[in-house]
Amino acid sequence: MTRLNETHDPSARSWVASASEPGTDFPIQNLPFGVWRRRGDARPPTVGVAIGNQVLDVTACLMAGLLADGVVEPAAACANPSLNALMEMGRDAASALRRALFALLKAGSDAEGRTDLLAPMDEVETFLPAQVGDYTDFYASVHHATNVGSMFRPDNPLLPNYKWVPIGYHGRASSLVPSGTPVRRPHGQLKGPHDDAPVFGPSRSLDYECEVGFFVGAGNALGETIPIERAEDHVWGLCLVNDWSARDVQSWEYQPLGPFLAKNFGTTVAPWVVTLDALEPFRAPRFERAEGDPQPLPHLDSPADRERGGFAVTVEVWLRTERMRAAGEGPTRVSRGSLADMYWTPAQMLAHHASNGCNLQPGDLLASGTISGPTEESRGCMLERTWRGANPLTLPNGEQRKFIDDGDEVILRGWCEREGFARIGFGEAAGVVLPAG
Ligand code: MN
Predict the structure, then answer these.
(1) Would you state the pLDDT for residue 82?
(2) Which of 5, 52, 132, 415 shows its CA 20 to 30 Å from the CA of 188?
(3) What is the Å distance from ligand 1's center to 299 Cα?
(4) How many angstroms separate the alpha carbon of residue 250 from the centre of ligand 1?
């Protein structure tokens, strides 16, 4: 089903001038949702929408009588410090609200010039978009899985289940942090390749993972499944996620049950959730299986998923070291990949997750796993980018990195571009690494 409508018209202009600046992540065609408040405001944060370099206060729009009866309910759900209530109403409610906000922000609307409904982004703080009950992390890039596998198991890089089942693990929701929160280098059990006994100390190979997460909207009851044909009804929107990882801890602890303390010391989540409606022009065919690869089992397959289950979201990792910051230098780009290169689509991951009757709940976060493509430049973590430190990166100022040092800031960015449509972006998921405590 194609859902292109007036909100995708590339010629649409907002009365918020910055929304029409070239290169903005937040033109009127995007309208991602997030949780925010003015810095210094003691009241609880609420749900807003990013527009240019401003945040639109949805609650203020409702109070001003600028939203019609049909969207009063979803707009009222925005008077909360999380998106959960709006997510729970499902995608149609959010679609209707997004269209109403589009009309309100369009040049010539009754709200034109109402700057009292806006707050400049550099005067607000943003929070986690949702109160996340459960966080699940997948491993959906076959390039990432093959690269990492070949480092740890050169003779057997890709395990036989990979091409049949979307591999994932249950992460930890309590350590999800909003963008801008510093992340402390963790301690853990570390073991060198020739050491008999591990030592307990600060991780020596701290890494990021460039991922896209998707939030669950309407959930399913325990014991009920979500057929792949309806999976996208439950995918509320996408956002950037950095799944910080301590590789030395990971390589020692991960067998036989998978990641544990190497992953749950902090996961950075971007403030803005881009709806599937906004992403409609950037749908892509599902990753094409190589000849000889199995086709997905029927419960993970549908014609629609084959044709348009993917999302052409370009993701980038930028790095800014302490020295670069001190010298007033901007971040440098480390990699660029695409969510369209993933072996499994969000619909497949979500349908798989619920295929045993596991109940997904509004605000749950499912993340893609490291987004890596076929080229070196598209590898979405340092483990792959430097091949476990064998090929260190040289930064423009001459500094070298095998992994992430104390004081380094890692910034994820994401955007979509396609001829005939307005470019939209995801904003940033950023975090500075603090020395181990
Ligand atoms: Mn991950």
Answers:
(1) 98
(2) 132
(3) 24
(4) 11
